[in-house]
């Protein structure tokens, strides 16, 4: 009898990423119960899969990573995009009465995992960024090598008996690595397809696989012979071999708690998808996957380029060897916002000096003379630029009016408390979360905002107009910056020589309710 097996299925946008941080206790319980494996699936994304894998293996439990998909009954390539829940969508969505197949898809080995990442990234881009409701069979077929699938049950309509499993489906009765797919000929026959094409051409299956995946090391004559064999045998060529290159681009973010980073991800991811580039979201977690780990993973996946929207490139004292690896391999890279010198990559930045000037002059116009700054760590390049600009503008900026903090509400609270104790009446912060912490610090001391202390943030991230009071802040032009970053990256991917220069974008002061006239003594 097979040992017990746990399968968790999750639905939130960052499910694997969130879940991986909470699974240690579950792993311990699985060990107590003698469960040897944990399977995790999600609908169309694998965010945090590497972290999940690391935590599972370190606990002595074998991880099995997969996705679940509702496969539409017909091709969607020629269909226009639809929004969730529209009436004309119902006929082929899971919520409608039309036929569909609910598949659980797993990787059989490292090759399968490679294709699973490609499939999940493409499905995520289509389903989330482009508002496609579900996958279709063509999308799955393009990345089906070494994948295993099973079908689920068709749920009964109200008042009707349970129809039972869909034709050709089954449940897992054995460990997942022994499961087979009886209902999807494309997935089940991938190995047979390789063998047939290899026999037709007179080459090895490995050579056919290299051609299908666009890898080097195959002569042009052999490549053309393999493609011709595909046509003769009636198999569809992969998308990248039909002229529509299915290219991956890493999108590396330092966190998701600060709303500015999901905002950048949405703009950049959407712009990439419009160019036929598939974004692979890589988000760091505390004590989890590092930026260098993500770069190594992206290099293994042979990405076409990488966009960093915040990261270690902005910290002078942080390790930067992984950036040099990207440069040595000539991988197109674009950095968003200020970076240390000599990395050799083009950058798209908001002008920190102009942002500081706008915030400072605003507080000065309200009569504030004792203005303090809450900035990031001393090696943080955007903070260094803001400080330099403040010293150039101010008649006098004492060192005690500059407080350093980690980028969080708690960090802003601690730093602003020190500034308030030193007598400042206006505080300029290097991010919106820092500004929210500064407001909390003033209130904890019994001081009103803005009656006794005025606070200015930076970013104008989501919901800053809904705080109490609404936050005065300096807005980054996220839409323009994100699209410019993608344009610069796409030019590099296309072979255009792009100089390692920085494009500066003008910020905008947004005056709301957290600033007012300086208090009278």
UniProtKB/TrEMBL annotation:
Spans through the membrane: none
Domain HTH lacI-type: 192-246
SMART domains xrefs: HTH_LACI, POLIIIAc
Gene3D superfamilies: 3.40.50.2300, lambda repressor-like DNA-binding domains (1.10.260.40), Metal-dependent hydrolases (3.20.20.140)
CDD domains (alphabetical): HTH_LacI (cd01392), PBP1_AglR_RafR-like (cd06292)
Segments of this protein annotated with the region Disordered: 152-171
Alphabetized UniProt keyword annotations: DNA-binding, Transcription, Transcription regulation
This protein's name: Substrate-binding domain-containing protein
């Amino acid at each position: 009898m097979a040992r017990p097996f746990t399968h968790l299925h999750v639905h939130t946008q960052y499910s694997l990423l969130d879940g991986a941080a909470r699974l240690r206790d579950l792993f311990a319980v699985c060990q107590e119960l003698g469960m040897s494996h944990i399977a995790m699936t999600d609908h169309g994304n694998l965010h945090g899969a590497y972290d999940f894998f690391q935590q599972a293996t370190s606990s002595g439990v074998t991880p099995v990573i997969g996705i679940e998909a509702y496969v539409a009954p017909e091709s969607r390539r020629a269909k226009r995009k639809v929004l969730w829940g529209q009436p004309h969508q119902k006929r082929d969505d899971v919520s409608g009465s039309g036929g569909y197949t609910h598949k659980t898809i797993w990787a059989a080995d490292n090759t399968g995992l490679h294709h699973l990442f490609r499939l999940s990234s493409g499905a995520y881009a289509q389903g989330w960024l482009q508002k496609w409701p579900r996958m279709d069979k063509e999308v799955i077929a393009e990345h089906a090598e070494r994948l295993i699938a099973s079908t689920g049950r068709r749920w009964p309509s109200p008042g009707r008996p349970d129809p039972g499993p869909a034709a050709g489906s089954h449940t897992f009765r054995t460990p997942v690595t022994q499961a087979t797919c009886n209902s999807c000929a494309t997935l089940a026959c991938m190995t047979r397809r390789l063998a047939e094409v290899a026999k037709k051409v007179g080459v090895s299956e490995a050579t056919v696989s290299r051609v299908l995946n666009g890898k080097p090391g195959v002569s042009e004559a052999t490549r053309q012979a393999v493609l011709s064999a595909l046509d003769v045998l009636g198999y569809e060529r992969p998308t990248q071999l039909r002229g529509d290159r299915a290219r991956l681009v890493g999108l590396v973010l330092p966190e998701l708690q600060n709303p500015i980073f999901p905002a950048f991800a949405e703009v950049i991811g959407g712009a990439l998808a419009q160019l036929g580039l598939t974004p692979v979201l890589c988000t760091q977690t505390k004590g989890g996957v590092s930026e260098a780990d993500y770069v190594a993973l992206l290099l293994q996946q042979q990405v076409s380029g990488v966009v960093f929207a915040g990261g270690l490139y902005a910290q002078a004292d942080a390790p930067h060897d992984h950036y040099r690896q990207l440069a040595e391999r000539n991988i197109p890279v674009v950095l968003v916002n200020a970076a240390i010198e000599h990395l050799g990559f083009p950058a798209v930045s908001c002008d920190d000096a102009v942002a500081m000037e706008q915030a400072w002059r605003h507080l000065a116009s309200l009569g504030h003379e004792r203005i303090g700054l809450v900035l990031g760590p001393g090696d943080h390049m955007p903070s260094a630029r803001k400080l330099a600009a403040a010293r150039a503008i101010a008649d006098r900026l004492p060192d005690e009016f500059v407080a350093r903090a980690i980028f969080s509400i708690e960090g802003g609270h601690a730093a602003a408390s020190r500034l308030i104790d030193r007598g400042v009446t206006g505080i300029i912060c290097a991010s919106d979360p820092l500004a929210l912490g500064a407001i909390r610090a003033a209130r904890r001391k019994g001081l009103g905002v803005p009656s006794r202390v005025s606070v200015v943030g930076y970013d104008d991230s989501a919901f800053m107009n809904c705080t109490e009071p609404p936050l005065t802040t300096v807005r980054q032009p996220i839409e323009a910056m994100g699209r410019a970053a993608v344009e610069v990256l796409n030019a590099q991917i296309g072979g255009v020589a792009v100089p390692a220069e920085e494009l500066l974008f003008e910020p905008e002061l947004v005056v709301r309710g957290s600033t007012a006239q300086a208090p009278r003594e």
